[in-house]
Description:
Helix content: 25-40%
Number of domains: 1
Number of helices: 4
Structural class: alpha+beta
Radius of gyration: 22 Å
Strand content: 5-15%
Amino acid sequence: MPNRSERSKKTKFRRVAGGKSKRIFVRGKTGKHKCALCKNVLHGVPHGKTSAEVGKLSKTKRRPTALFAGVLCSKCRHLVVMEAAQVEAKAKKFDEVELRLQNYVKQVKVK
């Protein structure tokens, strides 16, 4: 009987030397990356590959080079930059910024 942890894993059988077959366990593919704020799918970020395959890609293929790339979608990124600009221009106080955006606005101010 298989181990308890092996019962629900996907398996494949591979032929090895001597004509025997060996059971191997298959890992699932990674899901699509999502925006941290609105949970929409991020474009320009690879998906459907294992983390090892993504690690072998070049840096430019792993994620775009924009601000908060791989974390926020373009709409949310635009919203954060606009809020940071208003705080910088003193048109809005930092406490008036939405709570979910405050951490990102701080990071924009540092950069």
